[in-house]
């Protein structure tokens, strides 16, 4: 948890805001043992909690593992399709909060989504980190001038695939965070890492919703900092 009192306060308010999308204020009242009217003022930013109240809230959140609960609840809808997860405002805010914790105080100046669904997640993240977005896509363009193209072997399907990214958004960047939704093999992300290295961009880490354990371990073996919300 955050140590500086102002940062802790902001963090507590962010978590309360995320919880609003998953629970009613009455439910949050019961979970955190706080008066309804007080919670209402907090989530509507009419007032902010005192330091002692912040510590109580953070302690309760940690005790109940609230963020883990919200992640599990969101990912339980995975069989209904990714679009039912990555288009929900509550999950976008939750993912942004998780990303902020993952990055900590690192100076990330580029968010790199490696799929269409990951691009949806990247908007709130880029706003939170105040950095740019450079998507790597597999769209076939008639004119690839100004784009960098790389090929990789998709070992799961045993076929060669390609991804492209604009050279412009890779220029003058220093540290990137890669975001993906489902990772079954490390092949595509490894190819993205190689491109970023060619542009002298350091990769801070990789954040995914779901990863196969083998892919997760392979990415870590590349020396990357990896976090997956669910690993199987």
From TrEMBL:
- Name under which the protein is recorded: Uncharacterized protein
Q: Show the Gene3D superfamilies listed in the entry.
A: 3.40.50.2020
What domain of life does the UniProt record list for this protein's source? Archaea
Tell me, which GO biological process terms does this entry list?
purine ribonucleoside salvage
Keywords, ordered alphabetically: Purine salvage, Transferase
Which molecular function GO terms apply here?
Answer: transferase activity
């Amino acid at each position: 948890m955050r140590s500086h009192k102002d940062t802790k306060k902001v963090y507590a308010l962010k978590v309360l805001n995320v919880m609003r999308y998953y629970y009613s204020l009455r439910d949050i009242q019961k979970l955190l043992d706080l008066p309804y009217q007080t919670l209402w003022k907090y989530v509507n930013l009419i007032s902010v909690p005192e330091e002692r109240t912040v510590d109580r809230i953070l302690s309760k959140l940690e005790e109940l593992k609230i963020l883990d609960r919200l992640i599990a609840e969101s990912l339980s809808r995975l069989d209904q399709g990714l679009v039912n997860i990555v288009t929900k405002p509550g999950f976008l805010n939750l993912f942004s909060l998780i990303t902020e914790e993952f990055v900590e105080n690192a100076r990330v100046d580029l968010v790199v989504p490696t799929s269409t669904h990951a691009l949806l997640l990247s908007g709130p993240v880029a706003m939170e980190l105040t950095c740019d977005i450079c998507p790597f896509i597999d769209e076939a363009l008639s004119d690839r001038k100004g784009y960098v193209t790389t090929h990789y072997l998709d070992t799961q399907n045993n076929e060669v695939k390609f991804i492209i990214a604009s050279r412009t958004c890779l220029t003058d960047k220093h540290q990137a965070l890669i975001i993906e939704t489902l990772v079954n093999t490390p092949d595509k992300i490894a190819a993205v890492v190689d491109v970023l290295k060619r542009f002298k961009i350091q990769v801070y880490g990789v954040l995914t919703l779901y990863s196969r354990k083998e892919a997760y371990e392979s990415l870590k073996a590349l020396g990357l900092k990896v976090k997956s919300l669910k690993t199987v």
